[in-house]
Amino acid sequence: MPKSRELLDLPIGESAAIAEVGLQREPVFTAPELSIIVPTFNECENVPVLVDRLRKALPGVAWEMIIVDDDSPDGTADVARTIGASDARIRCLRRVGRRGLSGACLEGMLASQARYAAVMDADLQHDERLLLPMLAKLRSDEVDVVIGTRYAQGGGADTFSTGRKWISLLATRIANKVLGLKLSDPLSGFFMLRRNVVETYARKLSTHGFKILLDIVSTAGKSLRLAELPYQFRARQRGTSKLDTRIALDYAGLLLAKATSDLLSLRFVFFCLVGSVGIGVHFITLSIGVAVIGLSFPWAQTLAIVVAIANNFALNNAITYRDQRLTGVNYFTGLLMFYVVSSIGALSNMSVGNWLFGHEQTWWVAGLGGAIMSVVWNYVVSSLMVWRSR
Ligand SMILES: Nc1nc2c(ncn2[C@@H]2O[C@H](COP(=O)(O)OP(=O)(O)OP(=O)(O)O)[C@@H](O)[C@H]2O)c(=O)[nH]1
Ligand SMILES: [Mg+2]
């Protein structure tokens, strides 16, 4: 029988060892102990500096760095691969046709074979000297996740403007309140964990947004053992920030989803809000049709439906599905498809309403039931047929 058990007994992190497999002696390469996942978008100047700092910060540790680059136009992936050509610890996962910090971190962690995974930014704002103490905490087997915190004793974010400091603290408070957490920095982008935590919850984690740690902690719930270590958040020296208003919306969406156990998504809320604006547009167009243009009711009603659907499509395209916005020819084919979907939605509204009225005899229950049916239909089918995720 092959002595393959010896493979399992090799100490983690030993880069190469010889084990007996059957009758042959073969070199065995074990996985590193720690993968450092670094999401990047246009960080070509920062990557070489970060690699140098990691080399100094982790003596005696078997580590690797997985740069997850979303096809940066500045050639960050090429820079990473050039470094990786002479140092196999530096790997690059290049994603094409996709953007998103959380998704990049998730894919990086899932690409790792290490026992522990850390996530840190490429722009040198996170203090790499914290990695060793984080690793020591995890090795002690007392915790599952170690979070680098800016807002506990010994930590700081002095480089933040007053405005950004306030926004960050407010977002922190909201996260703790809404999700029932007690963390000083739940929005931290700098943390280390047992990688099997991510394997366990991977299917439930959102690939949108900026706040992967918050997602992991709130999805896993009380089962996770957490620890915090303070550090000083540094100023970005090179490259530009990717923070924008969309990130605030994604954050609101994550809170909503987690607070309702993934029942409600921000997309659905926006879809409903757009639908209510559409009702207003419908009535305004209807009254203009009847009172100003002098159309008969059926013609004015038809015009109002056509205008309201076009309005809903334009608003959903701009807001609800802003990350999958349709342009050019796709805008018009999408609009046509949205007309088809909405027409079927209106028919289902009528038939469900009539059926309920037949059973219930209460007009508003029947009306509400029909409306809910058509909103859910329109939402589900248009997200599958009109704004298909690529
Ligand atoms: N792969 C990938 N990485 C991203 C994306 N957006 C941001 N990043 C990276 O994620 C890290 C954090 O982004 P930053 O723009 O520095 O965000 P921040 O640190 O909250 O903001 P600043 O303090 O203004 O720098 C950086 O390494 C970015 O290059 C993205 O869409 N995809
Ligand atoms: Mg940054």
Task: Produce the secondary structure layout.
Blueprint: H1 5-9, E1 17-21, E2 24-28, E3 34-40, H2 46-57, E4 63-69, H3 76-86, E5 90-94, H4 101-110, E6 116-119, H5 131-139, E7 145-149, H6 162-179, E8 191-194, H7 195-201, H8 212-220, E9 226-230, H9 245-259, H10 266-293, H11 297-320, H12 329-360, H13 363-385
Parallel strand pairs: 3-4, 3-6, 4-5, 7-9
Antiparallel strand pairs: 1-2, 6-8, 7-8
Bound molecules: guanosine-5'-triphosphate (GTP) and magnesium ion.
Guanosine-5'-triphosphate (GTP) is lined by residues 39-41, 43, 68-70, 99-101, 104, 121-123, 125, 189, 236, 241-243.
Under CATH, the homologous superfamily of the largest domain reads: Spore Coat Polysaccharide Biosynthesis Protein SpsA, Chain A
Radius of gyration: 26 Å
Question: Helix amount, in percent?
Answer: 40-55%
**Can you identify the CATH class of the largest domain?**
Alpha Beta
- Provide the structure class: alpha/beta
Strand content: 5-15%
Number of domains: 2
Mean pLDDT equals 88
Shape field: elongated
Strand order in the sheet with the most strands: 5-4-3-6-8-7-9
Distance between the termini: 48 Å
CATH architecture of the largest domain: Alpha-Beta Complex
Give a list of the ligands: guanosine-5'-triphosphate, magnesium ion
* Spans of at least 5 consecutive residues with low confidence: 1-18
Order of helices and strands: HEEEHEHEHEHEHEHHEHHHHH
Report what the structure shows.
By secondary structure, the protein is α/β, with parallel strands linked by helices. The protein has two domains: 34-259, Spore Coat Polysaccharide Biosynthesis Protein SpsA, Chain A, CATH 3.90.550.10; 266-385. Helices cover 52% and strands 12% of the residues. It contains 13 helices and nine strands. The chain has helices at 5-9, 46-57, 76-86, 101-110, 131-139, 162-179, 195-201, 212-220, 245-259, 266-293, 297-320, 329-360, 363-385, and strands spanning 17-21, 24-28, 34-40, 63-69, 90-94, 116-119, 145-149, 191-194, 226-230. The strands form two sheets. The protein has a seven-stranded mixed sheet with strand order 5-4-3-6-8-7-9. A hairpin with a 2-residue loop joins strand 1 and strand 2 (24-28). Helix 10 runs antiparallel to helix 11 (297-320). The chain is elongated and about 85 Å long. It starts with a helix and ends in a 5-residue tail after the last helix. 35% of the residues are buried. Guanosine-5'-triphosphate binds at residues 39-41, 43, 68-70, 99-101, 104, 121-123, 125, 189, 236, 241-243. Residues 39-41, 43, 68-70, 99-101, 104, 121-123, 125, 189, 236, 241-243 line the site of guanosine-5'-triphosphate (GTP).
